[in-house]
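Let us work through a complete example step by step.
Step 1: write down the sequence.
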Amino acid sequence: MKNKLKLGQAAGVVAFAIIIGAVSMSSSSTVDARTSLKENRTVNARVALGLTEAADATELLTAGVTSALTYYGADVSVAQNDSNVVTASAQGAQVGNTAQETEQANEASQTPTAAQTCGYTNLGMSVISSGNLNIRQEASTDSEVIGILTNHNACELLEDAGEWYKVTSGKVTGYVNKQYLVTGDEAESIAEQEIKTVATVNTETLNVRAEKSTEAAVLSQVGNSEAFTVNSVADGWVEISVDDSVGYISQDYVTLAQALPTAKTIEQVKYGDGVSDVRASVVSYALQFVGNRYVWGGTSLEKGVDCSGFTMRILGKYGISLPHSSRAQPSYGTKISASEAKPGDLFFYGSGRSISHVAIYIGNGQIVHASNKRDGIKVSNAYYRNPICVARYLPD
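Step 2: predict the structure and record it as tokens.
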């Protein structure tokens, strides 16, 4: 038996030598891979070969190739002859490239998607050609409208309710007709195009400066929790668009985050006592155009309008004739205090006492206005800037 073991060990050494010889004739990359074998691995391979009670050297060679390939971690078939040894070794040497590609793919898969970045786990995106998508209290067209989505707004899908999805978007939770939402990869693709950096004011009142300096002129003031799309961030200042102007706010008093556009509430639908049907109708009519374009000098509610063009067209439908000028419109109404404002009254904004912007009050501390080229017609907090004056045009 001892002689048989010695014979087996000798055959193992011969087989290992044959493998080394075969490798030496392969490409340089194969040789590099072979020479990386550590001594203890070689010894283990030899011991394994020596203990193999094979009938001839061919089977011993097969066992030797298996040991070598196991070291490289390649999932390949055992070579049956010398010519295949080099091929098998080369396959083992290529494993490093495959592993690197796999690692790169894993890193890419770990990069957060737009939905994940913005905190969505089951993203839906609205896709509508024009107008608004209603969010209803219940899954029925007869149910109350409690919010609106414009084109490419994001929502979290909470429940599949047949022809409807229960969603939450912004501050609104309700039901949306399923045919106007996309999900999965299609939603993610839209989200990647729509994701923006948003600055949310975290102080009571914040000055918007004409330049990146506390010595620069104050264009306006913005209020706590008001959010603005960021144009750029540099030198501790955040550039934003406020109505028709570009200004700068201190980065120290805002919270920056990636966000997707979301639904707008329609709390103004619940006016309460003392609001006429005419005023309710004005607000409802004005809200139909949320999401449409802002165009400086424009007067078309569908194709593009500026702030005074918007108020001129909305009130004009109710018999109120106004000029196409935010500075001139206050003199056509009755001045009132902001605390007295009712839906349908106009809020005027600007710098100092110079009026440069106008909006329609819709109740519950909110306005609808043609804001700027970036945001279009939108709903905002009525006190996102300090109003210069408020004027009344509609009868009570």
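Step 3: interpret the result. The longest helix spans residues 2-24.
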